[in-house]
Specification:
With 277 residues, the chain is mostly helical. It has helices spanning 2-21, 27-54, 58-75, 78-94, 98-110, 112-116, 118-134, 138-154, 163-166, 171-185, 188-201, 207-223, 227-234, 239-244, 246-262, 267-276.
Length: 277
């Protein structure tokens, strides 16, 4: 609650500054400054929304979405509008509402910035691939991820882009989304392939992504009947992430439950139970 209050206060200050900037001379400068402040405020709400999505606090995420959309529309900033609508697509996908997810992500895909910059186009396509998978559409999933890879290959790697995008989006992210998508489709072998590709491409500092990908890879192996290999993979999740990141903790608990359901009396289940005790 305290964190949410601080976020609200910070966003309120940014919006207040934007409103206060209106009418201050010179007029042209005021419009630029005001637009920048609105974009900054929308970015605050977008970050709060993403944190709520990650924590599966969807009521809060929807509140943040409404605020972010209202402010972003006043900024005229294509990048922040893309970010918000793309987040909305992810939120609805996690809420098992693929129709709403596709509609929200389509807004991001149709923005001018997605047509102009292949990296934005690639991200929108990759997230749409995950949405198609949530809807059970294998053919569209395959096509979207293929197009996402092609778009990223067309991008000028030397071009200047916003830090929030370059900080996470690369080939590893495409494979990470594909891993999640094919898990949801029940294509364990393809999911495993993308899991290994993601791990090979991950930047060293992305420890949380490493933990999430490793846990998903273990699940793909388990579902193929390879309990011993799956447990060995799951035990490679960094101890810090396994103990401190709520999402990783939930995923590992789910893995353990699935292992118990599939092989309740196996040596591997006993090993995992002792390891997590």
């Amino acid at each position: 609650m305290e964190r949410r209050t601080l976020i609200t206060a910070a966003v309120g200050a940014a919006v207040g500054a934007a409103v206060g900037a209106v009418g201050s001379p010179p007029a042209a400068a005021s419009q630029r400054v005001c637009a920048s402040l609105y974009a900054a405020a929308a970015a605050f709400w977008s970050s709060a929304m993403w944190a709520a999505i990650d924590g599966r606090r969807f009521d809060h995420a929807r509140e943040h979405l409404r605020e972010a959309q209202n402010i972003a529309s006043m900024s005229g900033d294509q990048a922040i509008q893309f970010r918000i609508w793309s987040h909305a697509g992810t939120m609805y996908r996690h809420m098992n509402r693929p129709g709403d997810a596709a509609a929200a992500n389509a807004v991001a895909r149709n923005l001018r910035i997605s047509r102009r910059d292949p990296v934005f186009a690639s991200l929108a396509l990759a997230r749409h691939g995950a949405i198609h998978a949530a809807a059970g559409d294998r053919r569209s999933t395959d096509r979207a991820f293929g197009q996402a890879q092609e778009a990223l290959e067309r991008a000028d790697a030397a071009a200047h882009r916003l830090v929030w995008l370059t900080a996470f989006y690369d080939r590893a992210e495409i494979h990470g989304l594909a891993l999640s998508a094919y898990l949801s489709l029940g294509d364990w072998e393809t999911a495993e392939y993308h899991g290994y590709r993601c791990l090979a491409e991950l930047r060293p500092h992305m420890r949380r992504s490493l933990a999430i990908t490793t846990t998903r890879l273990a699940r793909a192996q388990l579902e193929q009947g390879e309990a011993e290999r799956a447990v060995a993979t799951a035990m490679q999740v960094p101890a810090e992430a396994a103990a401190s990141h709520p999402r990783v903790i939930r995923m590992l608990a789910g893995f353990g439950q699935r292992l118990t359901d599939k092989t309740p009396h196996s040596p591997q289940t006993a090993v995992w139970r002792d390891y997590t005790a």
